[in-house]
Design goal:
The longest helix has 18 residues. 20% of the residues lie in helices and 25% in strands. It is globular, with a radius of gyration of 28 Å. It is α+β, with helices and mostly antiparallel strands. The strands form seven sheets. It has a seven-stranded antiparallel sheet with strand order 1-3-2-12-11-10-9, sandwiched between helices. Strands 16-15-18-19 form a four-stranded antiparallel sheet, with no helix packed on it.
Length: 631
């Protein structure tokens, strides 16, 4: 980490541009910062990194948001600024922010004991059952967990060589590296859980007296995650999302998944270094570390998050202790969070720090390298890569990775006045379809808080392409006539209204719809900025009969009324079949079923006497009738 913003090292471009080769560049161009594009490209080429995203804010405004290279293993998908990547140990500042927020609410204090009688986790269903033989564990406090001084030293070897069931050994005591040995030792099933990992070290005991030394600990942060769950009564992920992230408009951050087939929407893919390990699922398969060697879902509070670069910067700006945008923590709380610990002057509570009042954190897993920084003069940035460098070039890689944004800023000729963080905070919702015919549908929604919204439609498949920030699209309510985002994902509406009629549909076909809120104003530099997370989506099926939903409701016949034993549902025109749901007057579901053809008789003998309604579903067309049961 640079100790001063303007140092001789910053203005020296440590990476030669002589071997420059072009890779994909995406995002809104910034001419006064075009040198940043060249620096990132050269860095990626030098270290053979497939893809990257970088976001830089100045005085609380996001001025640079660009992406480079490819986001997938096959090198077919250009990385976009909207791509999300695993952020590894950059998860620790997120956990710290959540703990500090709880302290502000009076729910926890730095000196609170964690384990044993009177400890926060005294009644934890798993950890309270640990066979603890080292009484010093009962002295561990919340502050010591935050500052990596709880007593565990991962650099000491605490497992046999070889480490069963692995055919080799691990020269460490960080159980995230050997999940199969943890479950074997604990007698638990695969894959490993957070509780398994913590339990393993609780029963091993401590390596030094709590509070007496510094030793970086992933497990300590997993314990903090358990504390958050115990106090909030929510899952760690839900608490952070609902309490910290959602109020800031951050919805592109979540706990990542382990397997490639489970990757999230707009998540990039990870390129490892060729090392494999036995699958963490205990199947006996050899797999890449980045896709099954470790269990990402068990990393949660210490290394499990994935995020976009923009949302990471949005979070940084909300705890930077600068007056440019409101912070979510009080100044005194932030100061406590970044005050160096007694055992390490370069580490505070979830943050690496230095005497120049710069704060940062790095993250590294196989397939991932991440950096976030808050500088003393108003800059914040996040850089995400989908590969890390190990071996003889590792030190040079991390030095140059750290230098990269500093060199970018020191050689920029100016900064735009826009703020690419000025996104909607609330999506449109309540997407509804009426009058569905063989070739059209009336669509309505409740607007969010954005300036505009876009409706995208695709026939016979999910919407897999997304609008790009800075690009305006032409919409046409005749399906297929508006702009194609890719793979026949067509823009059918773009405006500030709340309804449209989409025509040009094919009979008896499925259509996916996605509603996307966006801003476009002087604040955004007149660039459209699209909110791609938590978009409302739905699927409709057009009719083959050409009859609208209103006509279906008019022609639906339910008899006899009142009924006591059997109820007949009939449509007086040919259909292939339909589904129905019977609800009582309180809205509780009592019966449901599917029908072939246009007529069915259902048994209502067991329904209590009273009023009911039956809803018929024909594709996305709905028709409802009331009926009475009398016994």
């Amino acid at each position: 980490m640079k100790k001063k913003f303007y140092s001789a090292l910053i203005i020296i471009l440590t990476l030669s541009l002589s071997n420059f080769k072009s890779t994909a560049q995406t995002g809104i161009p910034v001419p006064s910062m075009s040198n940043c594009d060249d620096l990132v490209e050269n860095f990626l080429n030098t270290y053979d990194i497939p893809g990257a995203t970088m976001a830089i804010a100045r005085n609380g405004k996001l001025v640079y948001l660009r992406a480079f290279g490819h986001a997938d293993i096959a090198s077919q998908e250009p990385t976009q600024p909207y791509h999300r990547f695993r952020i590894a140990s950059v998860s620790k500042p997120i956990t710290s922010i959540a703990i500090m927020y709880m302290m502000e609410q009076g729910l926890i204090s730095m000196d609170d004991k964690v384990f044993g009688a009177g400890g926060i986790l005294e009644n934890h269903p798993v950890l309270s059952q640990a066979n603890i033989t080292d009484d010093a564990i009962y002295d561990i406090t919340v502050q010591q967990l935050l500052e990596h001084s709880a007593g565990w030293n991962r650099d000491l070897n605490c497992v046999p060589t070889p480490t069963p069931p692995y055919p080799y050994g691990f020269n460490s005591c960080d159980p995230i590296a050997f999940p199969l040995h943890v479950t074997l030792t604990n007698g638990t099933s695969n894959p490993v859980t957070e509780e398994d990992l913590i339990l393993f070290l609780l029963e091993k005991g401590l390596d030094f007296t709590p509070g007496s030394a510094y030793s970086y600990s992933n497990i300590g942060y997993l314990v903090l995650g358990e504390i958050i769950e115990e106090i909030s009564g929510m899952s760690y992920e839900d608490y952070v999302q609902e309490t910290i992230l959602a109020p800031l408009g951050i919805c592109d951050m979540q706990i990542a998944k382990t397997l490639l087939e489970d990757k999230a929407e707009r998540e990039g893919e990870y390129i490892g270094n060729g090392y494999t390990n036995l699958s963490c699922y205990g199947t006996g398969e050899y797999v890449p570390w980045e896709y099954g060697g470790f269990h990402v879902e068990a990393m949660t509070a210490h290394g499990g998050w994935m995020a976009s670069a923009r949302d990471l910067v949005r979070l940084l700006v909300a705890v930077d202790n600068f007056p440019t945008k409101p912070d979510i923590l009080q100044a005194s709380t932030i100061n406590s969070m970044v005050t160096p610990s007694a055992n390490n002057t370069n580490y505070a509570k979830g943050w690496q720090v230095n005497s120049f009042n710069n704060w940062w954190h790095t993250g590294a897993l196989d397939g991932t390298a991440t950096l976030i920084v808050r500088t003393n003069n108003g800059f914040t940035w996040a850089v995400l890569l989908n590969k890390r460098v190990i071996g003889t070039n590792a030190n040079a890689f991390w030095t140059d990775f750290d230098n990269l944004p500093w060199n970018c800023i020191s050689t920029s000729t100016g900064y735009p006045s826009w703020d690419l963080m000025d996104m909607p905070l609330q999506n449109s919702h309540s997407l509804a379809f009426e009058n569905i015919t063989s070739n059209s549908a009336d669509i309505s929604w409740e607007p969010g808080d954005g300036d505009y919204r876009m409706l995208v439609a695709r026939e016979n498949g999910p919407i897999t392409y997304f609008p790009l920030d800075g690009t305006e699209y032409s919409a046409n309510t005749v399906f297929g006539s508006g702009d194609n985002l890719g793979d026949d994902c067509f823009v059918v509406y773009a405006g500030n209204g709340n309804a449209c009629n989409v025509s040009g549909l094919n009979p008896a076909s499925n259509y996916s719809f996605r509603l996307i809120e966006f801003n476009k104003s002087a604040t955004t530099g007149d660039n459209p900025l699209y909110m791609l997370c938590n978009n409302e989506t739905d699927i409709i099926t057009t009719l083959s009969t050409g009859i609208s939903s209103n006509q279906v409701a008019d022609k639906l016949v339910v008899y006899p009324v009142p009924a006591s034993d059997k109820l007949t549902i009939e449509l007086p025109f040919p259909v292939e079949g339909f589904e129905f749901v019977v609800q009582n007057n309180s809205g509780n579901q009592m019966l449901k079923g599917s029908v072939k053809g246009n007529k069915a008789t259902i048994n209502i003998h067991d329904l209590p006497s009273g009023f009911y309604h039956i809803t018929l579903y024909l594709g996305q067309t709905q028709a409802r009738k009331k009926f009475v049961v009398i016994h």
